[in-house]
Amino acid sequence: MSELLVITGASRGIGLATARRFLRRGAEVINLSRSPCPLAGVHQRTVDLARPGFELAIEAPLVTAAAAADRVVLIHNAAVMVADSAQAVDAAAFGRALAVSLQAPAALNRLLIPQMRRGSSIVYVGSTLSEKAVAGAFSYVVSKHAVVGMMRATCQDLLGRGVHTVCVCPGVTDTEMVQQRVGGDPEVLAALRSMTGEGRLIEPDEVAAVLEMAADHPVLNGTVLHANLGQRER
What we know:
Blueprint: E1 3-8, H1 13-24, E2 28-33, E3 42-46, H2 59-68, E4 71-76, H3 91-112, E5 121-125, H4 138-158, E6 164-170, H5 176-182, H6 186-194, H7 204-216, E7 223-227
Parallel strand pairs: 1-2, 1-4, 2-3, 4-5, 5-6, 6-7
């Protein structure tokens, strides 16, 4: 059985680890991002997911690849993290966060769902902040809350088609995005580690394993899965 993974943001972090897993199982992998995925064997489609109409340039090859696959896994992984607040939100930054997390997935769903055979799946990458909030991450929190709603709406619209959908919500994961967000501050990193039940950051491949599992199990349709090592509530 031929399998196609279409994933956004596989140039690093969770997306990179996920692409690696699917390559190992023999899937064809297409990455959509501005930066290339460094893995040999991944087909790179360089796009800016925040740009309206980005999908027009890649529609033909994506549809052709999806139509030829026995099973398609679409993983909406890309996101934008900025430091902002409700009282000082930058309209452009907020719009970019929503475009990458919501408008781009909607565009890709529109292209690929008609090509998906039974057994295919759509997996959204949310966050612990999909169901709670912290100060100073307004755009990210809002966009990740909306990702859960998009997954649930996708589930309802696809019931009976044999295409399932799941939202996986990682906790604090040791990715380049998180390291950039904290600026390598050892005190902030120590505080983040203390939030988990194991006192450490989550490894990208741990989340990738959950994404792979979610893609493979239709019984999880409509489910929000938290992959966070058990967080300490404060």
